[in-house]
């Protein structure tokens, strides 16, 4: 991916260290983002000042630490702190209500852990990057159109003023 992403972050939040490392290896070989790994949501939330572009967040984060917040609680805090961060929920649960709950609270997508999870995440990351690129291009075009509109209005106003000035100062026969 493009070099401009290097300063942007993707957070990987999962309490399974092997899952995190494998996903980090997979993503880092395909995308040019800074990757940060967290084994609990609280640590990721503390680093939200880094304004990650994307967070891959495990739904069930309290398997090792019973008092840890679950993925939906962390998702709500991420979206409250940085609404533009796209969150991909990752879960071993193949339950539609879990997916709906995640999406209802602002998740971009929901991926079920399994043999196709990494390729699905890769496709979702590509979609998010394309979406961000389109939004950026749209903002640029809006600025250009606004500038051109102002320039055209200025030319029209100047033309009207010149015509009026010429009429006032036209020699009388």
Structure at a glance:
This protein is 52% helix and 14% strand. It is of the alpha/beta class and 173 residues long.
How would you explain this protein's 3D organization?
With 173 residues, this protein is an alpha/beta fold. It has a single domain (3-135), classed as 3-Layer(aba) Sandwich (Rossmann fold). The protein has 5 helices and 5 strands, in the order E-H-E-H-E-H-E-H-E-H. It has a 5-stranded parallel β-sheet, sandwiched between helices. Helix 1 (17-28) links the parallel strand 1 (9-13) and strand 2 (34-38). The relative contact order is 0.12. The model has no long low-confidence stretch (mean pLDDT 88).
Features:
single chain; 173 residues; alpha/beta; Rossmann fold; 5-stranded parallel sheet; 5 helices; 5 strands; 52% helix; elongated
**N to C succession of SSEs:** EHEHEHEHEH
Structural class: alpha/beta
Largest sheet entry: 5 strands, parallel
CATH architecture annotation name: 3-Layer(aba) Sandwich
Q: Terminal Cα separation, in Å?
A: 72 Å
Q: Count helical runs.
A: 5
* Strands ordered across the widest β-sheet: 2-1-3-4-5
Low-pLDDT windows of residues: none
Number of domains: 1
> What name does the CATH topology carry?
Rossmann fold
Q: What is the highest CATH level, the class?
A: Alpha Beta
How many β-strand stretches?
5
What average pLDDT do the residues reach? 88
Strand content: 5-15%
Query: For this entry, what is the oligomeric state of its chains?
Result: single chain
Rg estimate, integer Å:
25 Å
Sum up the overall morphology in one term.
elongated
